[in-house]
Amino acid sequence: MAKNIEIKARVAALETVRAKALSLASGPGETLRQSDTFFVVPEGRLKIREFDDGTGELIAYHRPNTPGLRQSVYTRYPCNDAKALCDTLSRVLPVHGVVRKEREVAIIGQTRVHFDTVEGLGTFIELEVILSDDEPAHHGEHIARDLLRTLQIPDESLIAEAYIDLLDGRTSSTPRSAPQ
Fold first, then answer.
1. Which domains does the chain have, with CATH numbers?
2. Nearest one of 50, 37, 44 to 1, comparing CA atoms
3. C-beta separation of 68 from 178 below 8 A
4. Phi, psi at residue 159, to the nearest 5°?
5. pLDDT bucket at 174, cuts 50 / 70 / 90
6. How far is CA 57 from the centre of its chain?
């Protein structure tokens, strides 16, 4: 299973943060439209991410809903027909909900930076520091903290919840301070 350190923040002035991040990136960002269908599962999360061309990926992951830096362990499996896979899984698993977003992805070192505009929620930035199999979590946390400082994203902007949780109202959408 792959792992990363991730952090998500609500940002009102996405263009300002985006410009600063893109100046640090290894190349221009790539813009994607994504539709994530979440399924009800007994543990972790399971979703199918569909892209504009109909392809997608099945993603299973575990990540705590805590503000600040957190480790995510995940498996991704590509598919050629995301709708057919959604239809198949929905015959045996209840659908929790769907998140639709436009996401621009840029790469800064070993960090994927997502600039997200989420339908019904607003604008966010998400950092995913990709860890190698033998790389300790604290190394990724250090990279993420440095990037947060560089991008001037305050702790008060950090959020714990996944977009699906914010959309279905199960948890507060109010940013909370991250533990130090």
1. 2-168 (2.40.320.10)
2. 44
3. yes
4. -125, 155
5. very low
6. 14
CB atoms within 10 A of CB 177: 12
**pLDDT tens digits for 55-100?**
999 999 999 888 788 899 999 999 999 999 999 999 999 999 999 9
Per-residue CA distances from 57 to 38, 66, 73, 99, 161 (Å): 12, 25, 16, 15, 22
Which residues are within 8 A (CB) of 133 and not within 5 positions of it... i.e. 6 or more apart?
none
**Is the separation of the CB atoms in 32 and 14 below 8 Å?**
no
Q: Check whether 173 has a pLDDT greater than 70.
A: no
Q: From CA 77, how far away is CA 24, in angstroms rounded?
A: 30
Which residue is associated with the tokens 């990037």?
147
